[in-house]
């Protein structure tokens, strides 16, 4: 049996747990570590047993809690090399800048953002919490280094025991994957595939375990043939239904942000998902999770109505149960 729990989905943070009897992984770490752990425990998943965290792309709503989660719970991180490098660039203070100054800069950047732009996934309202959490972990990791040295002279002679204490982008273990090249974590086979989105190397995932096939595609501007091909024969399909076109057009976002969301490297609208579900989707999934629903430019009722209308003839007692992922609370676990 495979258990899937969407802990959070949306522009303020994304995180989903997939677990078999032997392996437990999370897709994205877009909440603060504390929040991820809290929601995992609520769902009956233990962070102690995590075998990996897989990253789709480097936008903040997918990586905010990554550093602390990986360091505190010693979880291997799986990302493409380009995504890892982009994340590192973002995490590393400029050479002339102390970590405290970097933290302050990020705080100021956040304070300067307009309320509208905080809903796009380039920024995240949890940033301060996540950054402060990282500062705490770094301070904790610094302790052994201080204990190991005795006074200034020795401090000069010996480098700190843990490089982690001075490097915010330190991760205990990173495995790089490439889109199109499958790999395994325990008994879960992972196939990453490229999606069109405005990040350096964004991917979706096919996860296969115990005869089940799970397809995850959130954060993509449209559905090119390679993505449509990967979404076939899924037992669970998780796809974003980000915005209602009219609400986005008439909504509060600045023009440039609207253009970005609407672009071919932005996000899928309810209409785009509806078009896919009615015209091309094979109807194979027992569960269809609609995810990354915008809180400013969409309404759950519109998402559901649009998808159910599109699925029309394909909905049965056994198949295509439509679920809406939420930002604020975990979705009930799905057993496949
Ligand atoms: Zn996102
Ligand atoms: Zn994104």
Distance between the termini: 6 Å
SSE class: alpha/beta
Attached small molecules: zinc ion
Strand-and-helix sequence, N→C?
EEEHEHHEHHHHEEEEEHEHHHEHEE
Q: What is the 3D shape?
A: globular
Present the secondary structure layout:
Blueprint: E1 3-8, E2 15-19, E3 24-27, H1 33-42, E4 52-54, H2 60-63, H3 66-72, E5 77-79, H4 81-91, H5 99-112, H6 127-148, H7 151-157, E6 174-176, E7 183-185, E8 188-194, E9 203-209, E10 212-217, H8 225-230, E11 236-240, H9 245-250, H10 255-262, H11 270-279, E12 287-291, H12 300-311, E13 321-324, E14 334-335
Parallel strand pairs: 3-4, 4-5, 5-6, 10-11, 11-12, 12-13
Antiparallel strand pairs: 1-2, 1-14, 2-3, 7-8, 8-9, 9-10
Helix pairs in contact: 3-6, 5-6, 11-12
Bound molecules: zinc ion (ZN) (2 copies).
Give keywords:
seven-stranded mixed sheet; alpha/beta; binds zinc ion; globular; 336 residues; 14 strands
Describe the structure.
The protein has helices at residues 33-42, 60-63, 66-72, 81-91, 99-112, 127-148, 151-157, 225-230, 245-250, 255-262, 270-279, 300-311, and strands spanning 3-8, 15-19, 24-27, 52-54, 77-79, 174-176, 183-185, 188-194, 203-209, 212-217, 236-240, 287-291, 321-324, 334-335. The chain is α/β, with parallel strands linked by helices and 336 residues long. The chain has 2 domains: 1-175, no CATH class; 220-325, no CATH class. Bound molecules: zinc ion (2 copies). One zinc ion (ZN) is lined by residues 57, 59, 121, 197, 199, 219.
């Amino acid at each position: 049996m495979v258990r899937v729990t969407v802990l959070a989905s949306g522009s303020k943070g994304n995180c989903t747990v997939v677990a078999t009897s032997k392996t437990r992984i999370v897709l994205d770490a877009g909440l603060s570590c504390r929040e991820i752990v809290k929601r995992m425990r609520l769902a009956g998943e233990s962070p102690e047993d995590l075998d990996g965290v897989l990253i789709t792309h480097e936008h903040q709503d997918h990586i905010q809690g990554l550093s602390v989660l990986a360091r505190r719970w010693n979880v291997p991180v799986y990302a493409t090399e380009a995504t890892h490098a982009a994340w590192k660039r973002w995490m590393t203070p400029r050479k002339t800048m102390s970590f405290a100054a970097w933290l302050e800069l990020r705080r100021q950047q956040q304070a300067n953002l307009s309320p509208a732009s905080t809903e796009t996934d380039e920024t995240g309202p949890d940033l301060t919490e996540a950054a402060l959490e990282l500062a705490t972990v770094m301070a904790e990791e610094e302790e052994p280094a201080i204990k190991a040295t005795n006074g200034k002279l020795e401090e000069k002679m010996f480098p700190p025991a843990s490089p982690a204490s001075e490097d915010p982008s330190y991760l205990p273990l990173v495995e790089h994957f490439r889109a199109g090249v499958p790999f395994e974590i325990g008994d879960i086979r992972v196939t990453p595939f490229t999606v069109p989105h405005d990040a350096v190397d964004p991917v979706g995932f096919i996860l296969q375990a115990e005869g089940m096939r799970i397809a995850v595609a959130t954060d993509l501007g449209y559905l090119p043939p390679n993505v449509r091909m990967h979404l076939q024969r899924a037992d669970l399909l998780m796809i974003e239904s980000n915005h209602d076109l009219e609400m986005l057009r008439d909504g509060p976002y600045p023009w440039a942000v609207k253009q970005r969301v609407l672009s071919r490297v932005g996000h899928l609208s309810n209409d785009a998902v509806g078009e896919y579900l009615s015209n091309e989707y094979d109807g194979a999934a027992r569960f269809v999770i609609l995810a990354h629903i915008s809180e400013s430019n969409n309404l759950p009722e519109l998402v559901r109505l649009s998808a159910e209308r599109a699925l029309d003839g394909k909905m049965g007692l056994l198949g295509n149960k439509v679920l809406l992922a939420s930002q604020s609370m975990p979705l009930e676990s799905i057993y496949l």
